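Hi all, posting the design record for the shared folder.

TITLE: backbone redesign
STEP: 1 of 1
STRUCTURE INPUT:
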């Protein structure tokens, strides 16, 4: 079945290989085992259930929280030729009936429902469907400890109990350790296997600015946006009023923007969201109500105008930038007014203690002197031993000291109290505080009592915050906010690892004097010009088909087209994100545009010319690939193109008679040679892709039956 999965990955979705964990997840689902998938935004969660859905015989049910999210995924699947649909409150009764009939006739591979719709369909036609798989997206919504709890998600367990022999897969991009435990319990999953992918998003630049005066912040953000003209972005605000203010500020500066919040009518919100998805609006100024249901891959930046209320929400919101894995920027502004306002909101909740602690962790992130990526990953129980180099702290690092002994003192105190203390008690133990609590609980008898008396409360607060931030311990929200030592912390405690931390320095007043940077305009490179032309063509097609532009092709796919400039169907199919359906639908238009662009450009060496020069110098395939920083398969495709165009290349140097005969023997089994994978497998994977392509070109040019000369 995994062979089939790989074929679908290329032919339907247009990718040559699976990302980290995807193949193992698919294998587990196909083995009919319950599965939990934790994978960052843009990490490829959807493929993990969509490919099994296309392999399994019957229908896959996908439970998704938002109508916009369902529509987005269904549109993307349909553009790839997959029979998918959604069934929700946005549809007329006639439309619902059509989808119901298709589902009952088993004419759909995937059907998307909200948890509310699922409850409404109980004891109805839904339970007569032939179902092979159930996927629960945004599964963190089932946990009260998560940042987006939805009570309806807890009812999914009823469905799990009724579909006993059908595998369930729960997927989320934001869940700490406690939330993960809740996902398994509250969804009723049976012995689920958890796949935890790296939460690292190395393409995101992380920057934080604190306590910036309002006018200076406006100037900074305007400069930021103007230096990124024509880029799509989101500004998140705490209040509706702020979204409207920012929208007006941007419009006054001739920037294409709009505000979005829950005070607008549903029709207004739908139109704004659609216009943003279709690139008719460049920038959205929004409350956090915006974005969860958007799979827009080319958002290039996210700005937070205020401090988010927790790290989970912040991570999910910045994750809306750079979903196509291209470099993207994130910028967080905060001040203590934000903290007070959010704390007041938190105190009104029945879970105020948890919400206040999560807000405190968010503030610690904002004020951190530690690599910001380390903090985010540690929060999700992932270790990053090296600084990322792509955050403001790494670019302006503080003075550091060896923090191993300080950490061991703190961790030892936590261990000796059986992990039953929080922040304040830990500091009192370390400083040897002579309080009634210390003596009544016999903390004064611990070996660690008073071991850190030489440091002030502020110093210990500073260091303990760093220990939390880098992941030596975590806060147990379900156990009175007590500290728990992590596996990473145990390595430090038992002298297996040393750590460096920022040295304590009393806070100084920040000099907010603005230095205006000179503006300059850079000319676009040839690849950038072609990229813009490709985007215009994509936009035209998207308007004609009434789908978001990124449904046609992502920015990452267009960028690869601009770099590689594919001129044949084979070359176009080799671009990541191009499957057979999209080759058939769009290949001719895009290839024609690329050919016209090359013809009208100032004569320059093409990528094929550069490869030809190196061939003529007598270099090997591996040497050319190394010099050009391309794969050997790509170099072989260049040679095939050059040979087909009549350049005098002795291609016979790259293969032998036996390989030619093997390929000629299997060729009658295939109607098309556009896809190499079936041929590669028919040859028992004994001849590499590049050589297969070269031999096919050789045979085609020499009319198949000619002998080697």
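Okay, here is what came back for every position:
SEQUENCE:
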């Amino acid at each position: 079945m995994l062979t089939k999965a790989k074929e679908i990955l290329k032919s339907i979705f247009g990718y040559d290989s699976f990302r980290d964990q995807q193949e193992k997840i698919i294998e587990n689902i196909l083995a009919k085992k319950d599965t939990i998938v934790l994978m960052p935004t843009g990490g490829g969660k959807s493929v993990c259930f969509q490919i099994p859905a296309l392999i399994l015989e019957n229908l896959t049910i996908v439970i998704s929280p938002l109508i916009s999210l369902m529509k987005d995924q269904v549109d993307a699947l349909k553009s790839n030729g997959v029979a998918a649909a959604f069934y929700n409150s946005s549809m007329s009764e006639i439309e619902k009936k059509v989808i119901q009939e298709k589902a009952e006739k088993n004419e759909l591979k995937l059907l998307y429902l909200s948890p509310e719709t699922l409850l409404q369909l109980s004891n109805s036609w839904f339970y007569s469907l032939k179902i092979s798989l159930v996927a629960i997206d945004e599964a963190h919504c089932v946990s009260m400890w998560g940042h987006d709890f939805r009570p309806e998600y807890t009812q999914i367990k009823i469905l799990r109990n009724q579909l006993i022999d059908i595998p369930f897969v729960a997927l989320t991009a934001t869940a700490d350790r406690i939330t993960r435990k809740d996902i398994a319990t509250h969804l009723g999953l049976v012995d689920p296997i958890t796949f935890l992918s790296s939460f690292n998003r190395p393409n995101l630049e992380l920057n934080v600015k604190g306590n910036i005066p309002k006018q200076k912040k406006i100037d900074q953000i305007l400069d930021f946006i103007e230096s990124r003209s024509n880029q799509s972005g989101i500004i998140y605000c705490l209040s509706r009023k702020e979204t409207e203010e920012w929208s007006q500020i941007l419009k006054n500066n001739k920037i294409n923007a709009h505000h979005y919040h829950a005070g607008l009518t549903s029709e207004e919100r739908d139109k704004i969201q659609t216009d943003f998805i279709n690139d008719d609006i460049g920038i959205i100024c929004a409350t956090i109500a915006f974005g969860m249901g958007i799979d827009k891959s080319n958002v290039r930046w996210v700005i937070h105008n205020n401090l988010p209320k927790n790290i989970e929400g912040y991570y999910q919101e910045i994750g809306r930038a750079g979903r196509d894995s291209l470099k993207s920027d994130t910028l967080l502004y905060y001040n203590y007014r934000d903290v007070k306002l959010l704390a007041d909101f938190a105190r009104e909740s029945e879970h105020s203690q948890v919400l206040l602690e999560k807000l405190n962790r968010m503030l610690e992130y904002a004020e951190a002197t530690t690599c910001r990526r380390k903090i985010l990953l540690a929060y999700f129980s992932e270790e990053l031993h090296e600084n990322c180099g792509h955050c403001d702290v790494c670019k302006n690092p503080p003075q550091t000291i060896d923090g191993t002994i300080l950490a061991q003192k703190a961790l030892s105190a936590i261990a000796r109290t059986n992990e039953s203390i929080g922040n304040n008690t830990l500091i009192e133990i370390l400083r040897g505080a002579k309080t009634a609590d210390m003596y009544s609980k016999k903390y004064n008898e611990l070996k660690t009592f008073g071991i850190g008396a030489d440091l002030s409360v502020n110093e210990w607060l500073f260091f303990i915050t760093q220990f939390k931030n880098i992941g030596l311990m975590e806060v147990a929200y379900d156990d009175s906010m007590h500290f728990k030592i992590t596996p990473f912390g145990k390595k430090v405690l038992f002298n297996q690892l040393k750590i460096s931390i920022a040295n304590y320095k009393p806070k100084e007043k920040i000099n907010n004097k603005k230095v205006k940077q000179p503006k300059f305009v850079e000319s676009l490179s040839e690849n950038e010009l072609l990229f813009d032309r490709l985007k215009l063509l994509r936009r035209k097609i998207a308007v004609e088909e009434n789908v978001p532009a990124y449904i046609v092709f992502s920015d990452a796919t267009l960028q690869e087209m601009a770099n590689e400039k594919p001129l044949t169907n084979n070359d176009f199919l080799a671009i990541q994100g191009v499957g057979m359906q999209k080759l058939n639908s769009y290949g001719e238009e895009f290839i024609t545009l690329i050919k016209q662009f090359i013809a009208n450009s100032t004569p320059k060496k093409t990528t094929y010319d550069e490869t030809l020069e190196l061939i003529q110098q007598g270099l090997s395939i591996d040497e050319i690939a190394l010099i050009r920083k391309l794969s050997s398969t790509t170099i072989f495709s260049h040679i095939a193109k050059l040979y087909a165009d009549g350049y005098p290349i002795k291609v016979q140097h790259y293969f032998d008679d036996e390989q030619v005969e093997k390929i000629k023997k299997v060729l009658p089994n295939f109607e098309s040679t556009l896809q190499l994978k079936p041929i590669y497998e028919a040859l028992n994977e004994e001849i590499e892709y590049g050589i297969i392509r070269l031999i096919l070109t050789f045979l085609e040019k020499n009319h198949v039956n000619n002998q080697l000369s």
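COMMENT: The chain has 32 helices and 17 strands.
Let me know if anyone wants the other runs.
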